[in-house]
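Sample pair:
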Amino acid sequence: MKLFNSYTNTVEEFKPIDGNKVKMYVCGPTVYDYAHLGHARCYITWDVLYRYLKFRGYDVTYCRNVTDVDDKILKKAEKEGKSPTEVSQYWYKQFTNSMKSLNTLCPDIEPFATKTLGEMISITKDLIANGYAYEAGGDVYFRVKKFPQYGYLSKQPIDQLESGARIEVGDLKEDPLDFALWKKDEKFGYNSPWGVGRPGWHIECSAMSRKYLGKTIDIHAGGADLIFPHHENEIAQSECANGCKFVNYWLHNGFVTINKEKMSKSLGNFLTIDDMLKNYDANTLRLFILTNHYRMPVEFSDEALTSAQAGAKRLTNAKQTPINEELDITTTDEYKAFVEAMDEDLNTSKALAILFDLATRANKDEKDAYTILFKLGSALGFTFEKASLSDEDLTKAISHVSEVLGQEFSSMEEIIELRKQARAEKNWDIADKIRIALDESGVILKDTKEGTTIEAKG
């Protein structure tokens, strides 16, 4: 299996530190607002990596943190007259619900920054003791120039970083490049050896990854926007505190863009996951993201999502047959081709082509095609359950068709019978009105050899 390592800028053979055990850390959310499509890109991408590593037989420990102490959270709390804890807990629940709706697996470990303060303080004390950090007026800063490899991940020479750096009014830094490990904050802070304050953002991930995964980990992943300064700073403080290599493989996903601009809350051009799921199901959003290579930017458009929706339906509407649990898919050509694609730095577009071919063959009743489709598709996080219709959904659909046609129907069977009669008499106007009205109600009629079935649109 080969992965592109952002640190070395090359595709490398993946070799875990300890046999088949994999320690994987992903930078999680700062919980103060709705998750958007950019977050979906990030967490679906690493959900697929997590699933695929397990699919290939690795014993994975996946840690994704929650930043629940941050300037943005504090601003929101002040604006709404709430405590920072109330704000972070509310938005953490919203984030969790959004991730569940996208069918992403829960991480094995999900630590909160506020529950890991002791480790952050401990690392900061070590850095001060070893001359890598210093206290200044209740703040603690990291001495960037004490770490010669600074800028290697982001490929930014230190002289270029220096030219763009500046000291803000009130800063007590020795050097403009130095970054905060601890910030004085007497209003919302916590007790520390340097007075009441709170951690800098970067130290949070160093502390949580060390506590739960160890000093050196296999994979650290996140969005490309985190390369600098967040991941660059993580490397500096972790390696200086621990005296060893921090991460073996750095992985970064590309942005979701709108009109060639990165989607972000600060630009105000973001689409929330919850809003997207009102019009498109989780399989559609997953397919939209996986159609493109994870390192490339994805340009959002209604056309692209409509195309993804059609593709997702091709997969999930494939003719379903009982899963052959006795089939060893590792012996099949499709499995080998799928693994070859995914082992090529997670080439999901090539893997999807294999799934589409299997869907076509399943519709032709080819033996075991659906079983292989189901198992390979599940490794990418697709769900194959047919969306169910509640009694309320059916009642609304019947009512809508009655309104459109101007005649009362008491059951879906009556509507199906009228449609059958209209088609037999080539009364396409009535047949089309029924089809359109049902589609508007979220209902699809499917004609099979056994008769007409009712399915939820999805």
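The longest strand covers residues 217-223.
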